[in-house]
Amino acid sequence: MKKIEAIIRKTKFEEVKEALHENGIEFFSFWEARGVGMARESRVYRGIMYDTSSIERTYLEIVVRDVNLDKTIEAILASAATGEVGDGKIFVSTLDERIRIRTGERGDESLYIKD
Amino acid sequence: MEELTTAVSEFTVSTDTIWILVTAVLVMFMQPGFALVEAGFTRTKNTANILMKNLMDFSIGSLIFWLLGYTLMYGEDIGGFLGKISFFFNSDEINGVPDKASLMFQTVFAATAATIVSGAVAERTKFSAYIFFSIAITAIIYPISGHWVWGGGWLSSLSTPFHDFAGSSVVHSVGAWVGLTGAVIIGPRLGKYTSDGKARAIPGQNLAFGALGVFILWFGWFGFNPGSQLAAAGSENASAISHIFITTNLAAGAGAITAMAVTWMKYKRPGLSLTLNGALAGLVAITAGCDVVSPGGAVIIGILAGTLLVFGVEFIDKVVKIDDPVGAISVHGLNGALGTLLVGVFSTSNGLLYGGGAAQLGSQFIGVLAIGAWAMATGFLLFFILKKTIGVRVSKRIEEEGLDIYEHGESAYN
Q: What phi, psi does B303 have (nearest 5°)?
C-alpha cells in the first residue's frame, strides 16, 4: 500500500479527478495549498510593486494498493501536465498501516468495499 | 392676491425643505460608502474595528453637532472666528427652510469630515482614542473653521470672499488634515516600511467592497453638492442644482479615467484600487467650485485631480512615508486643496482664465492655508494629548493579531 501525494495546478483539478475515476480510483482527499517555487508573478498595489512568490495549487492525497500504483501515477501525469514550469510534483511513499474506522478492517481490505 | 403670494411662499418653503432633507439623506448614505471603502482597503482582521469606527463617528457626530457644534458653526458671529453656542438645538424658526432641516443637513456634513479620519489612521488606532477624537472634531475643529466660511466668519468677509461651495476644504480637507496629523503621530502600521524605509504593499481584503463603496459615495455626492444650493424652488435654483449635478458627475468621471490612464502608464496595467480613488479625487476637487465652473472646467478639474491623486498617493507613501491605508490624505486633503484653489482659475464669474484676475485665487490660497493650518494644529494637539494620556495606538500584539478580537471581542468573518 502506497500513499501518493500530488501537487497540481488548480485549473487541472477536474481533469485529474476524471482521469482517476476512469482508472477506478474513487477515494482521495484534496485541499488548497500555497507554496513557493519558480513560478512568480509581480503585482502592483496602490503604486507599490510587489513580488508574490506565494503560489496556489491543489494538493491531492491518494492511498492505493500496490497494484494500482502505476496506473494512478500514469493518470495524474497524463491529466495534470501542461509542459510549463509549475505543473507540480508527485510523491510516493510506503504506508505502514490502514484501518477503516467503521469496521476495524486493516490492510488492503480497508481500501475497497467488498461486494 | 395676497393669498396667492402666501401660497407660493409656502410652497417654496416646502420644495426647499424637501430638497434639503432628501439631499441630507443622500449625504448620510455616504457613510456606508466610506465604511465599505475603508473595510475593503484594509485587512480582514480589522474589519469589525473599522466598521465600528464608522458607525460611531456618525452616531457621536450626530449628537455632538446637535448639542453644540451646529450653533458654534452657524450661531451669531463672534469676531469672525466662531458662532455663539446655544446648547441642545431646538429652534422651530423658519429661515428659508426650518432650522431643523438645516441642522440635519449640516450634521451629515460634519459627520463626513469626521469619518474621513478613520481611513487614514486605520488598522492601528485605539478605539477609545478614536471616540475622543470623534467628539473633538465635531464639537470644535470642524465647526470653527466651518464658521469662517459658511457661518459668516472672516473668510466669507474677505474683500473677495473665499469660495468653497460644498466643502472641498471646509469638509474634506479638514478631515484629511486631521487624519494626516493622526497618521503621523500614531505612526505607520507594523510591516508597512522595511527597516531601510522602503514602502511595502499591504493589499486590502476586498476590492469589491472598495468599488461598491466608491459608487455609493459618488451617488451620495449628488446630495452633497447639489444639496448645498440649499434651495430648489424657482427656475434659478432649478438651473443651479442641475448644473451642479453635471459638473459633479463630469469631474468624477474625468478623475477616474485620468487615474486609470496614469496607473496604466506608470505601472503597465490599469489598477482598480487607485482608479477608484481617482473618481473620489474628482468628486472632492469639484466640490468647491461645482456651482461656478463650466462643464468643461469640471472635466479639467477632474483630470488634474485624477493625476494628482496617483502621484499624491505615491508621494505620501514613499517620500514622506506617512501610512494612509485608504489614501484619505491624497483624496480628501490634496485634492480638497487643489479643487479649492482651482475655483480661482476656473470660476466663470471671476476666475483667472475668465479674465477675473488673481483676486479670487488669492482668497482661495488664504482659505486653503488658514483651514489647513487650523486643522493640522488642532489635530496635532488633539492626537498629542491623547497619546500622552490614554494612548493612541494598540499594542504590537493586538496589531499583529487584529484589532477585531482584542478591541471588540468579535471578528467580522466567522
A: -65, -45
